[in-house]
Design goal:
- By secondary structure, this protein is α+β, with helices and mostly antiparallel strands.
- It has two domains: 44 residues, Roll (SH3 type barrels), CATH 2.30.30; 63 residues, no CATH class.
- It contains four helices and seven strands; from the N terminus they run E-E-E-E-E-E-H-H-E-H-H.
- A five-stranded antiparallel beta sheet has the order 4-3-2-1-5, with no helix packed on it. A two-stranded parallel sheet has the order 6-7.
- It is elongated and about 55 Å long.
Length: 118
Amino acid sequence: MHKLKEGDTVTFLFKRKNHQGIIKQINNKKARVWVEGIYDEKTLPLTRLNYVPPIVLTNEQMRKFCRYEIKWSEIIKDNPEYAPVVLENPYTITFNDFLIAIKNIRASGDSNETVRTQ
């Protein structure tokens, strides 16, 4: 089981609705959570918080994404949309990545809207 800490993304039930947020301050019993969508902080008992693990992207996934070989929706398909994304290692986009991306975007036939949102 993950030991909650500041900066963790969590979900919780509040006023009969599921919410997600980020822990801003924590002690042994409670945490102050910045609640997304409400744009406010709530202090909640730790027992009500559920940890959301980050999506860890490998260099290979980043390379494929930068080259439009895989869409963002495919990378995050099995994860909550609010899960944090972290890189396993730093990735530097190359000029060759841009050239390949342009070629792949043209070949895909995707609309401008699809390219921007996928």
